[in-house]
Amino acid sequence: MNSDDVEKVHGSLSFKSVSQSEIENTPTKESHGAFIELKPQSKFKRWLYGLRNVEMGGIERVSEDKRMPVTASTTLHMLLMWFSMTLAMNNIIVGSLGTLLMGLSFKDAALCGILGNILGTMAVGYMSTWGPTSGNRTLIVSRYFMGYYPNMVCCALNIFTNLGYCMLNSVVGGQIISKASGGQISVLLGIVVVAVISWAMAMFGMRIFQIYERFAWLPQLMVLCIMIGSAGPRFNFNIHKDYSPEHLNAKRITYFSLCLSIAIAWAPLAADYYVYYPPHVKRWRTWMVTVLGSAQAMTITLLLGMGLGTVLASSPTYLAEYGNSPGGLLMTAYAPLGGFGKFCAVINVLALVANNTPGAYSMGMNFQMLGGFFQRVPQPVFTTLSTVIYTACAMGGRNSLYDIFKSFLPLIGYWVVMWFVIIVEEDLFFRRTKGYDWSAWNTREELPLGIAAGIAFLIGWGGAIIGMDQAYYSGVIAQVAGGSDLGLWVGAGFTAVAFPPLRMLEKSYIGR
C-alpha cells in the first residue's frame, strides 16, 4: 500500500486527502462484496470532497493490510495522546464538586475520586482492546453485542454525551477567556472561540491534532504545576461539613459514582484510536497504554480541583471576588500571579480544545452509524451540525454550569455502564469460543438481532431510575439509602442479571 491509499498517523485516528479523480473513479468495498460508489452526486458534495485535508473517511472497517506495525514510538505516542486528552479542565471542575458543593473533606473526596477514576479507566482500557482485534470503531464493534438496531440507541446516546461534554468544555473555556480578559471579552464570544477552534481541528486538522497531542501535554502539565504552586499553599485540608454518618456515606457514594462516570464516558470512543493497530498486538498492552495515560491525567486534575474547591469553600473573600463558577474557580488559582496567571489560563483553554476535538470528530461517525440516510451524508456535515448545536446549548446554559455537571454526568454513567455490562457478558458467556467475523460489521443478517440486549438495556434503565438521586427526581432505592445516587449500580446490576437468560432464550429460538 502506498501513501496515496491511506495516510496513517501513528496508529490512531487518521485521514487522507482525496482528489476529485479518485472520488469519481474509485469505489469502496463494504462487507460481503457490497460496493458503494463514492462519486458525489451534487455540486456541494464535489466541493466538499475536493477540500484538502478534510476527513472524508467513514465508518468502514480497516482491513489488516492497511494496519501498521506497533513500535515503542507509537506506543508512547498513544500513551501521551490519552494523557493529553484527559488532562482536561472539566476534570478540575468535577474535582471541585466534591469539596465545594458536596462538602466532603479533601481526604474523602480524594479517595472516592481516585478509586472511581481507576475503575472507570479500567473499563475504557478494556474497550480500547477491541480496536486492534476488529479494525472497527467502538460503536461498530458494539453491533456484535447489542445487535444492529438496538445499537442505534447507543449511538444516539453517545451523540448526546459528546454534545454535552463539548458544551461543558465550551462554557468553561468561554468563562476562562472572559475572566482572563477582565471582562472585555464576553463569555458568549469566548464560547464561540473555543467551539470554532475545536470544529476547525476536527474538520481539517486531524493530522495536526495528532501532532499536537504528542506535545500538548507538556505545556498543560507545566501550567497545572504552576497552578499547584500558586494555589497549593491556600488549600484547606481540614475543611468539611458536619454530616451525619448516613448522610456522609451517601455523599461519598454519589461522588464516587460521579468520578467513575466521567472516566467511563470515554469507553464508547476508546477503540476508535486503535483501528490501525494490527490484530496480533497483545490486548494487555493496549489496555495498559490506555489506563496509564488516562488514569494519571485524570487523577492529577481531579485532585487539583478538589484542592481549589477547598480554597473557595474556606475563603469568603475569594468566593465574593471570583464567584463559584468554573471559570472563577480556575482564576482563583492564578490570583497571585497577575498577568502571567492570565496567560496560564489561556493555555488551559487550549487543553479544553484538545479534549473537545475527539468528541466533535466522533459525533460525525456516530451519526453515520445510525445507518440509512445518515450513512450517506458526508461526515463533515455532521461535525459542523454538532458544533452548531453544542455552541447554542453552551450559550443557553452558561450560567448554570455546576447544575448541569451534577445532573448530566451521572446520566452518562448510567447508560455506558449498562452497555458495558452487556458487552462483557456477551463476550464471556456467548462469544468467546465462537469468535467473530469482523467483516460482517454492516451485514444485519449475520449480527445478533439484539432483542435480549435491548430488553436488558431497558430493564437496566428501570433500575437506574429507581436508584437515582438527582435534583429533578429521587428513586425509591435512593430514598431508602439516605439520598445516595445508586442509579449507576442498580442499573448495572439489573442489566447483569437480566441479560444472560434473555440471551440464552434469544439464541435458542432465533439462533443468532
SSE topology sketch:
Layout: H1 20-25, E1 28-29, E2 35-36, H2 43-50, H3 72-86, H4 89-101, H5 106-128, H6 130-134, H7 138-141, H8 143-146, H9 148-180, H10 187-204, H11 206-231, H12 245-264, H13 283-314, H14 316-322, H15 326-333, H16 338-368, H17 373-376, H18 379-396, H19 401-431, H20 451-467, E3 469-470, E4 473-474, H21 476-480, H22 487-509
Helix pairs in contact: 3-11, 3-13, 4-12, 4-13, 5-12, 5-13, 9-10, 9-15, 9-16, 9-18, 9-19, 10-11, 10-16, 10-18, 11-13, 11-16, 12-19, 13-14, 13-15, 16-18, 19-20, 19-22, 20-22
Describe the structure using short key phrases.
512 residues; 2 domains; two-stranded antiparallel sheet; globular; disordered N terminus; transmembrane transporter activity; membrane
Helix-residue proportion: 55-70%
Radius of gyration computed on alpha carbons:
23 Å
Percent range for β-strand residues:
under 5%
Q: Would you give the CATH topology of the largest domain?
A: Hydantoin permease
Number of strands: 4
Order of helices and strands: HEEHHHHHHHHHHHHHHHHHHHEEHH
User: What strand line-up does the widest sheet have?
Assistant: 1-2
Q: Estimate the global geometry from the Cα principal axes.
A: globular
Overall pLDDT: 82
Major sheet summary line: 2 strands, antiparallel
Q: What structural category arises from helix and sheet content?
A: mainly alpha
Can you identify the CATH superfamily of the largest domain?
Hydantoin permease
Low-confidence stretches: 1-40
Number of domains: 2
Count up the helices: 22
Named CATH architecture of the largest domain: Orthogonal Bundle
CATH top level class name of the largest domain: Mainly Alpha
